[in-house]
């Protein structure tokens, strides 16, 4: 089962905390908003932490299925 | 706007108008199309699925599948008719509701029966009031003409006078902003009076107005449903193409002899649809297809069939039925820059990549239009165009990026002129693409 991160762009306020925790999977754009890449399984624990630590609860960890 | 003519067998939604030459009252409507079938229910969903009807609001989603999803919800559903038509270059939904309101309302009533809805809401754009800052719900137009909301209310009253409606219908005027007619924005407006999109899922068909499964479809889509219920899927498929069956309304403007709304089978080549509106009145530089979230076509693509798949294969998007013919004498870069500035001003102000990204792209285009072209500018713009799509709560930024990227492709040669000029000689002409006035 693979997982992916998703941002609720309405809730995200560009704190950038997620990119600090997960630089391998999350980039910030020029305005400081996250650009999410694939999350390899070994990064799952960190991804969970990023989700829990996001100050606006804007990060979601979802099962990766085609929408 | 006028309504153009086409060969009779390819005119369905506008057939009544062509026969009458005026708005169809309830009586006229029944004479033209006959009464809708009394019981359609689940059979209607199957008929719509078999018909292959896709939504006419721009996304091209299969309508039958949407009906089935809404019907599968446990709670009583809501039917929303999206007639807000936020695209500045579109007039088809207004034209349709003005000349054949009962076709749209029949479709909404039939759909409500099929999905088990207890309420129908018709959403139109609020129109400019007399400058008194009045409630948009009761706004009257500056020119004194009836608002679209009034036109629809009058049609609803006609129906109620003839026979009590099986499902209550009401009209609501949403704020006149581009993004307010996006489907989750309509749900948000109806629930909380806030016409800004919501984060999805849940999508409206799962959980929409009041938490109920909600069918949001374009006004024209309902009119096709009304005819499928009467004549069946085989009839519907008797024109158009196997994967894009039926007819569609197109709003054709710019430099054509008879700008207005025409009806043509899907798959009709772009140039042929322009001819239904009188054809180009000047040499063309490009055609904008699909409105301000759509794509520019160079003149050598006028033979392209108007189907989603043909457009996709050419790296373009068909979108809603909108064609704007741009004359050779216009500056496509300046035209695109104006539209992008307007699109940037239309963000609902919620999502970073849209709130910051669209004004940034618009500013880059303003530089291009002002002949301040540099490699650095191109590099920055390319990066922005690749990084913004898919990162808003709604698809507004995706449309703006699609529009901007196609402008770079189609006006590439003219951009090379901008790179070496002090100013663009073409920019002296009045603009062709319409930008709504603020009110
Ligand atoms: C920014 C934006 C504006 C939209 N405006 C309209 C509109 O004015 N009318 C419309 O029917 N759909 C509009 N849509 C599409 C709707 O969200 C929705 O997909 C559509 O109403 C569904 O109807 P259909 O399935 O019949 O096409 C818009 C979408 C976006 C992203
Ligand atoms: S930590 Fe949360 S609010 Fe901050 S950038 Fe990441 S998603 Fe956005
Ligand atoms: S993507 Fe833009 S228009 Fe859509 S909800 Fe976010 S801010 Fe509003």
TrEMBL record, chain A:
Source organism: Actinoallomurus spadix
Name of the featured protein: Ferredoxin
Automatic annotation (TrEMBL), chain B:
Soluble ligand binding domain: residues covered: 250-285
Stored Pfam families: Complex1_51K, NADH_4Fe-4S, SLBB
Swiss-Prot/TrEMBL keywords: 4Fe-4S, Flavoprotein, FMN, Iron, Iron-sulfur, Metal-binding
UniProt key word Transferase: no
Annotated NADH-ubiquinone oxidoreductase 51kDa subunit FMN-binding domain residues: 48-226
Annotated SUPFAM superfamilies: Nqo1 FMN-binding domain-like, Nqo1 middle domain-like, Nqo1C-terminal domain-like
Protein transport found in the keyword field: no
InterPro entries reported for this sequence: ComplexI_51kDa_subunit, Nuo51_FMN-bd, Nuo51_FMN-bd_sf, Nuop51_4Fe4S-bd, Nuop51_4Fe4S-bd_sf, Soluble_ligand-bd
Required cofactor(s): [4Fe-4S] cluster; FMN
Residue ranges of every copy of the NADH-ubiquinone oxidoreductase 51kDa subunit iron-sulphur binding domain listed in the record: 337-416
PANTHER family assigned: NADH DEHYDROGENASE [UBIQUINONE] FLAVOPROTEIN 1, MITOCHONDRIAL (PTHR11780:SF10), NADH-UBIQUINONE OXIDOREDUCTASE FLAVOPROTEIN 1 NDUFV1 (PTHR11780)
Family: Belongs to the complex I 51 kDa subunit family.
Name the record gives this protein: NADH-ubiquinone oxidoreductase-F iron-sulfur binding region domain-containing protein
Lineage, top ranks: Bacteria, Bacillati, Actinomycetota, Actinomycetes, Streptosporangiales
């Amino acid at each position: 089962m693979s997982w992916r991160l998703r941002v609720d762009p309405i809730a995200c306020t560009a704190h950038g905390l997620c990119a600090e925790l997960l630089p391998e999977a999350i980039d910030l754009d020029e305005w400081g908003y996250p650009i999410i890449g694939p999350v390899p399984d070994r990064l799952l624990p960190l991804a969970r932490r990023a989700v829990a630590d996001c100050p606006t609860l804007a990060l979601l960890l979802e099962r990766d299925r085609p929408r | 706007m006028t309504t153009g003519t086409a060969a009779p067998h390819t005119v369905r939604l506008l057939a009544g108008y062509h026969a009458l030459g005026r708005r169809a009252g309830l009586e006229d409507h029944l004479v033209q199309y006959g009464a809708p079938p009394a019981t359609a229910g689940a059979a209607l969903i199957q008929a719509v699925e078999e018909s292959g009807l896709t939504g006419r609001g721009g996304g091209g989603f299969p309508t039958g599948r949407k009906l089935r999803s809404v019907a599968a919800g446990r709670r009583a559903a809501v039917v929303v008719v999206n007639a807000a038509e936020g695209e500045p270059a579109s007039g088809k939904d207004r034209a349709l509701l003005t000349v054949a309101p009962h076709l749209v309302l029949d479709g909404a009533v039939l759909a409500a029966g099929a999905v088990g809805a207890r309420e129908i809401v018709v959403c139109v754009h609020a129109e400019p009031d007399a400058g008194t800052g009045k409630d948009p719900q009761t706004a009257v137009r500056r020119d004194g003409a009836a608002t679209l909301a009034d036109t629809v209310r009058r049609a609803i009253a006609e129906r109620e006078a003839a026979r009590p409606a099986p499902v209550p219908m009401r009209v609501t005027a949403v704020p006149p902003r581009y993004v307010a007619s996006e489907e989750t924005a309509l749900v948000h407006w109806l629930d909380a009076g806030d016409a800004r999109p919501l984060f999805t899922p849940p999508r409206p068909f799962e959980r929409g107005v009041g938490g109920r499964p909600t069918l949001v479809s374009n006004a024209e889509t309902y009119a096709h449903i009304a005819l499928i219920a009467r004549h069946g899927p085989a009839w519907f498929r008797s024109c158009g193409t196997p994967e894009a069956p039926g007819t569609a309304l197109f709003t054709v403007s710019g430099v054509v002899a008879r700008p207005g709304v025409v009806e043509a089978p899907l798959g009709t080549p772009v140039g042929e649809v322009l001819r239904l509106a009188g054809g180009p009145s000047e040499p063309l530089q490009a055609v904008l297809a699909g409105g301000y979230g759509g794509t520019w076509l160079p003149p050598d693509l006028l033979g392209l069939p108007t189907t989603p798949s043909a457009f996709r294969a050419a790296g373009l998007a068909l979108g809603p039925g909108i064609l704007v013919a741009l004359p050779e004498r216009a500056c496509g870069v300046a035209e695109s820059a104006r539209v992008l500035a307007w699109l940037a001003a239309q963000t609902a102000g919620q999502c970073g990549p849209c709130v910051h990204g669209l004004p940034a792209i618009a500013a880059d285009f303003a530089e291009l239009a002002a002949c301040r072209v540099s490699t650095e500018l191109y590099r920055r713009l390319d990066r922005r165009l690749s990084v913004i799509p898919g990162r808003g709560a709604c698809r507004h930024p995706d449309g703006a990026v699609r529009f901007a990227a196609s402008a770079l492709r189609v006006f590439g040669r003219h951009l090379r002129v901008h790179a070496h000029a002090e100013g663009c000689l073409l920019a002296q002409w009045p603009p062709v693409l319409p930008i709504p006035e603020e009110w």
